[in-house]
Amino acid sequence: MGQTAAHPAVHAFLAHPSMLMALVGFVALLAPLVLIHEAGHYLVARACGVGVKVFSIGFGKEICGWTDRRGTRWKISMLPLGGYVQFVGDMNGASQPDDADGMTPQERAACFQFKPLWARAAVVLAGPAANFIVAVLVFAAFTLAFGQLQAPAVITAFADGSPAKAAGLEVGDRIVAVDGHGVDSFQDLREAVLPRPGEAISLTALRDHRQLVVRFTIGSQEMRDEFGNSQRVGMLGVASGKVERVRVGPVTALGDGLRQSVSIVGTMVTGLRQIVTGARSARELGGPVKIARYSGERLSLGFLEFAYFAGLISINLAFINLLPIPGLDGGHLAFYLAEAVRRKPLGARAQDWAFRTGLALVLAMMLFVTMNDLATIWLH
């Protein structure tokens, strides 16, 4: 049989030493985060009296595993792209309801589908919540260890071609709000502007104890990291005063970790809105290949860079899983919301079609982002 020649860039990527680092980083990143996510589901399920049939890291064929005294099968599976917890009463790992006929009274008592609505919602929400909490703790640990960056949102200088200067702002102005949302520091200002290149904005500033409002379009700038990865970000073209790193206690650090996490979620919502409206290209979405590459890059820079990146990906997992797509945690929560409004569950046929549609959508999204990732390798 003949062999099909691959693109030289693919050969180069596979032969490059960073490929091994990417694989190591991908496993070291995803396995703990998936474990944390599924452990959230598992622990709350056990607390609510739900029986657990399977706890799997990965999908597909089992590589290795064991069964505990409660009858739960703990296993590692072939495809390391996620995991699942299968409860008593589930047809599959997506928690699609199984036929309850023929269950013993003991099985019905442990069946997920027969638990109160609040308990089912708590079990489903526990996975994303676990990932979010981990991210908060990671960012809080960084703040506790290295201090909190503090700089007033006071303009001390302008860059060439500054959109803010063109709009009438001056050196010495203190920016106090972005689109009506309060700004306490220059870091708050950066977080509000970076994810919105090319968007119209309203800035509220103080000048000589007088308040003024300016409206203009945020500038757009292509930023590249040390590995050549590019990202389009918003810019005002302003500089702040002296940035100080202030030591804080555990409570303040925890609050800062929560603030950072909420800000990142806001950035994700903004990015998703931009893609839906066409303001940002869908080709900027990344999948497993891109995550693996970034994981290897962050790992090569040291443990701290890798740990911070893990916090970012943990929030990503929480956010993606809460999207209202059947088969994901957000899809289940949408079903429960409908059940709370209707005072009865959706019919079995409707749920089955919803799960099929959701699975098709998730697979299509995975295919699209993977093709995006491979196209990036091809172009390089």
Key words describing this protein structure:
20% strand; 2 domains; single chain; disordered N terminus; alpha+beta; Pdz3 Domain; 380 residues; 11 helices
Task: Give the secondary structure arrangement, pairings included.
Blueprint: H1 8-15, H2 17-47, E1 52-67, E2 73-87, H3 105-110, H4 117-146, E3 148-150, E4 157-158, H5 163-166, E5 174-178, E6 181-182, H6 186-193, E7 200-207, E8 210-217, E9 219-224, E10 230-235, E11 238-239, E12 244-246, H7 250-277, H8 288-300, H9 303-321, H10 329-342, H11 348-379
Antiparallel strand pairs: 1-2, 3-12, 4-11, 5-6, 5-7, 7-8, 9-10
What do you see in this structure?
- The chain is α+β, with helices and mostly antiparallel strands and 380 residues long.
- The protein has 2 domains: 8-145 and 311-379, no CATH class; 148-246, Roll (Pdz3 Domain), CATH 2.30.42.10.
- The chain is built from 11 helices and 12 strands.
- A 4-stranded antiparallel β-sheet has the order 6-5-7-8, with no helix packed on it.
- Helix 2 packs across helix 8 (288-300), helix 4 packs across helix 7 (250-277) and helix 4 (117-146) crosses helix 10.
- The protein is elongated and about 75 Å long.
